[in-house]
């Protein structure tokens, strides 16, 4: 049996699988199996009011899980397979159990682009929930080794898909009433607004924007952001040209895509030097920079 077939078999048996996606590694379970989903919450130490994303093979399967409108169709057509998650009204017979949705009448759904994730979805033949494979509140794993170190013990199978190309979690857009950006990501605000018009911010209502509650992505060391000159006992993560000598640079050439792909790995590497603090240089807030700065603010405890 191939690794992919074994992984699909483990999912069918109600067990957990570490799965590569183009954004970050996920800890996957059969979306319809509440006991398997409960194991995810337990393995991550995740509050069970924070719902999971249902991953499906294509838009046909997505329409079975969620009620699509014209805006959803347009975004799916433009960005799937890829790093975009849509929050839509759930179809209760769509195979995503209550616990996976934290009891909400809505569901987050995405079609991932990574070939290994796609092979598993095809072999499994139904929706798979997969939160990032980190323990709750820690940076998302973007390499196989980091994923194993975070939640490997809870998984019956683990697939190595190499380092994640995007390196940040998917963009989450809610289409329940007016479109809202719940989580910035690799599909940028401009790209989405170009297709469906202006995006509002996430609501304060926790049932509508559950992910906004949690402080997130934090390494063990405290994090300071927008730092030009680090103190001597700080690990410094630079961006672009820098006069400060440091082994950590998000992108020496100032490329936001490269910076996104390296962000969580560099946070982990800087953390491993056991610094008093991790200081991070300013990153421009345009395009993909919005998502990078969102994760950095959360790592610094400036959100939630
Ligand atoms: O890139 C990704 O999306 C990765 C890979 C593995 O696919 N997965 C991921 O899942 O980041 P997770 O569980 O770490 O993040 C899911 C986010 C959370 O912020 C959660 O609150 C939000 O999506 N979410 C899920 N269901 C929702 C819903 N029904 N309404 C609003 N937000 C929802
Ligand atoms: Mg996560």
Plain-language structure description:
It is a single chain. Helix 1 crosses helix 5 (115-124). The protein is α/β, with parallel strands linked by helices. The chain has helices at 3-12, 34-44, 59-65, 70-79, 115-124, 144-151, 189-196, 256-272, 289-299, and strands at 17-19, 26-30, 53-55, 84-89, 106-110, 128-129, 157-158, 171-174, 180-183, 200-201, 223-224, 234-238, 248-249, 277-280. The protein has nine helices and 14 strands. The model has no long low-confidence stretch (mean pLDDT 94). The chain starts with a helix and ends in a 5-residue tail after the last helix. A hairpin with a 5-residue loop joins strand 8 (171-174) and strand 9. The chain is 30% helix and 16% strand. 50% of the residues are buried. The strands form two sheets. Strands 7-1-2-6-3-5-4-8-9-10 form a ten-stranded mixed beta sheet, sandwiched between helices. Strands 11-14-12-13 form a four-stranded parallel beta sheet, covered by helices on one side. It folds into two domains: 3-210, DHBP synthase (Alpha-Beta Complex), CATH 3.90.870.10; 223-299, no CATH class. The protein is globular. The structure holds threonylcarbamoyladenylate and magnesium ion. The site of magnesium ion (MG) has 4 residues, from loops. Threonylcarbamoyladenylate binds at residues 21, 23-24, 26, 50-53, 83, 85, 87, 101, 104, 106-108, 112, 130-132, 169-170, 172, 174, 182-183, 209-211.
Write the layout of secondary structure elements.
Blueprint: H1 3-12, E1 17-19, E2 26-30, H2 34-44, E3 53-55, H3 59-65, H4 70-79, E4 84-89, E5 106-110, H5 115-124, E6 128-129, H6 144-151, E7 157-158, E8 171-174, E9 180-183, H7 189-196, E10 200-201, E11 223-224, E12 234-238, E13 248-249, H8 256-272, E14 277-280, H9 289-299
Parallel strand pairs: 1-7, 3-5, 4-8, 9-10, 11-14, 12-13, 12-14
Antiparallel strand pairs: 1-2, 2-6, 3-6, 4-5, 8-9
This protein binds threonylcarbamoyladenylate (TXA) and magnesium ion (MG).
